[in-house]
Amino acid sequence: MAGRAQPVSGFPGISAALLVVALILGTLGAVALRAEAGTGLGASDWAALRFTLTQASLSALLSVGLAVPVARALARRRFPGRALLIALLGAPFILPVIVAILGLLAVFGRAGWLSSFFGLIGLEPVQIYGLHGVVLAHVFFNLPLATRLILQGWQEIPAERFRLAAQLKAGPLAMWRLLEGPMLRRVAPGALAVVFAICLSSFAVALTLGGGPRATTIELAIYQAFRFDFDLGRAALLSGVQLLLTGAAALAALRVSAGEGFGAGLDRAVRRWDGQGAAARGLDAAWIALSAGFLLLPLAAIVLSGLPGLADLNSTVWRAAGNSILVAAISTVILLALALPMAAAAAAGRNSLTELSGILGLAASPLVIGTGLFILIYPVADPFALALPVTALVNAVMALPFAMRILVPRAREVLGRYGRLSLSLDMQGWAFVRRVYLPRMRAQTGFAAGLAAALSMGDLGVVALFADPDFATLPLQIYRLMGAYRMDAAAGAALLLLVLSMGAFWILDRGGRWHAEV
Amino acid sequence: MLKFENCRIMNGGYAVEADLEIAPGACVAVIGPSGAGKSTLVEAVAGFLPVIRGCISWNGSDLTSKAPGKRPVAMLFQDGNLFPHLTVAQNVGLGLHANLRLNQAEWQKIDAALIRVGLGGMGPRKPAALSGGQQSRVALARVLVQGRDILLLDEPFAALGPALKAGMLDLVAALARESGATVMMVSHEPNDARRIADQVVLVAEGKAHPPQPTAELLDNPPPALKAYLG
User: Fold this and answer.
1) Chain centroid, CA A72 distance in Å
2) Chain A residues 406-435 with a CB less than 8 Å from chain B
3) Cα–Cα nearest to B202, from B17, B31, B15
4) Residue A265 has pLDDT above 60, yes or no
5) How far is CA B108 from the centre of its chain?
6) The pLDDT of residue B80 is above 90
7) Fewer CB in 10 Å around end: N or C, chain A?
8) Residue pair A215/A134 in contact by the 8 Å Cβ criterion
9) Which are the contacts of A69, defined by CB distance < 8 A and separation ≥ 6?
10) H or E stretch covering A11
11) Distance (Å, rounded) from C-alpha A403 to C-alpha A358?
12) CA distance B1 to chain A (A)
């Protein structure tokens, strides 16, 4: 209720939100001042815009289209390993992009498993670079997300409806008309918009699998204008285009999306009576097997191809790994310092500002913020010397929207349940934060910190702008090894990165829940 | 004396009016139909709801502008009276110092309070290791160390069985007698009022009526109360 006294002040949270808004809008302003509108968009820029929209549309349609039968199969079948498979659907979110790409290359690349199999039966090897490679990687990342979103839609259908449908002897068509169709009309637009928005600002995928005049996204064009031509004006102009695009898509996604797919309890299987025929069973089994294979084979490929390379990782890789751990640690601390006060302020009723910075965080592109920071830092200091703190900061801001989704509901619960008791005990400010807020938020804080650390560990974005040849994080080092065609070393480093990312997530998430009272 | 002077209390969309006095040391039950504003009345005393007209005072000093924690008030809520991550002793200790910076004498005071409510030696445990009735006793031990003049109960024992609840009410009455605290107890159960309250404040149709002797009121209920009691 508005105006009710709360044991925490909204001031720190509002300050944190303002800081984020200032960072995003300030860098945007720097970019805008530098942009050279006079030259306008060239032919290659229009091509980049077209490619960005094409690949994002295709990726969204394919991801959601394939997710419909997969989610249906998962929703109505129970089998050993089902809970594990559904948990694994959450993994691509924290899987470093560069690692997944190496896995996809090992399976679908020219020298990959699929090409070898094609070679056995006399077919041409598959070609992964270009539009279809970019879309393939995006589907790899977003099919699980879309599946989780649609599965959540299935879970929200009350069990009584399934009983009613069974009593009415609803066949496949009737099931579609009564239950699945209306559910998808509610859930699918949100899923499409979310995937589309994510794919718009994809950088690392386009960097490794795209490129060239026919497969360059706007983010990649920003990077090239910056890195190869050092044309800040053009980078700024492209950043403006990118921001309009992602801003519109993020707004649309927030408008139409209902849930976020993080929800617990997705492994609950509702008792159902439909789809008992042999054909339906076989089809569901095939969908589950195909999607599991599509997810698990690249992961298996990373482990298999990385193990031999682990032994001879050189000191450059280890130094890069050290940098990555440092970046992830700093980024996680920054994220918590921003998100915990912001969640408290949002829960105490000051929603609008914290929501605004969340939306801005979704719309902001790391490359745009990076470009802006570079323009701001360039006159006063050597931007390349600041690669590490800048990367950590930008990574924290990028993780902020996800952290807020995890923290705010819990903060509301804590204030709702203990706010009045704390006030009546005269427990306010720091005493409340230390004795009640932080202890009660522990599990969610650990989860958010784990996500932030893993995302930052695997990030290949702004660091590519800022790093000089002597500095690298692990993902950047892997990209350089790939560029030098040292695929064995890259595979070994990718396995190391996978272990570091997942390990950081696991330790922080576990640490949050360790001995936590409900 | 707890005095409501020509008060109008806002709770979201509706208001409760009160113009009444409660004698120091009295134990008063607040009864009435659900939704009539029983909780609204005690939450205004605790400082959780705004008084938009008139004032609430205790022994002549105005409470209305004071923060909840600065009022001479201890309150027990329907649920969530204990912090699950703190031990029993720490939960009680919050009543002495919200920061839990406590000296030896204060820890002894906490032990004594726990013994008084029948939980001697339970200090190091976490609330989850206690039964519902024991958890209520921990909250009462905290009220005891708080030593405030006014004790507000917003149906904190509603989830307990009849025998346990009766025992808790008797304990409340005994503790209040010992300390001389003034008690306001929200209840929808006339028998609770008969058990420990000398007086009853009837809240109905947006108005809190002045306290009347319990037996008298419950035996000859006015129409508004009669409709509720059935």
Assistant:
1) 24
2) 417-418, 420-428, 431-432, 434-435
3) B31
4) no
5) 25
6) no
7) C
8) yes
9) A283, A287
10) helix A11-34
11) 9
12) 20
Q: How many CB atoms lie within 10 A of CB B28?
A: 22
pLDDT tens digits, residue range A302-340?
A: 999 888 888 878 889 999 999 999 999 999 999 999 999
A163 is written with which tokens?
């009983």
In this complex, do A424 and B74 lie within 8 Å of one another by their Cβ atoms? yes
Cα(B87)–Cα(A216) distance, rounded to whole angstroms? 59
Cross-chain CB nearest to A424 (options B46, B83, B100): B46
Using a CB cutoff of 8 Å and minimum separation of 24, what contacts does A412-417 make?
A: A412/A346, A412/A347, A414/A347, A414/A440, A414/A441, A415/A6, A415/A7, A415/A8, A415/A344, A415/A347, A415/A348, A417/B80
Q: How large is the greatest C-alpha to C-alpha distance in chain A, in angstroms?
A: 79
Q: Is A421 close to B77, i.e. CB distance below 8 A?
A: yes
Q: How far apart are CA A276 and CA A168, in angstroms?
A: 15
- Polymer length of chain B: 230
Alpha helices by DSSP H, listed for A201-314, are: 204-209, 218-227, 232-256, 278-310
> At residue B93, what are phi and psi to the nearest 5 degrees?
-60, -25
Q: In angstroms, rounded to a whole number, what is the distance separating the alpha carbons of residues A174 and A170?
A: 5
Q: Is the ipTM of this complex over 0.90?
A: no
Query: Comparing C-alpha atoms, which of A494, A504, A394 is closest to residue A454?
Result: A504
Instruction: Give the lowest-confidence range in A225-239, A250-264, B52-66, B112-126.
Output: A250-264
Tell me whether A518 touches chain B (CB under 8 Å): yes
For B147, which residue in chain A has the nearest alpha carbon? A425
Nearest to A93 by CA among A9, A161, A149, A33: A149
Beta bridge partners of B4: B20, B56
Rounded to 5, what percent of chain A is helix, strand, coil? 75, 0, 25
**Token match 């009564």: residue?**
A178
**Backbone torsion region of residue A133, taken as left when φ is above 0, otherwise alpha when ψ lies between -120 and 50, otherwise beta:** alpha
Residue where the block lists tokens 């310092």 = A337
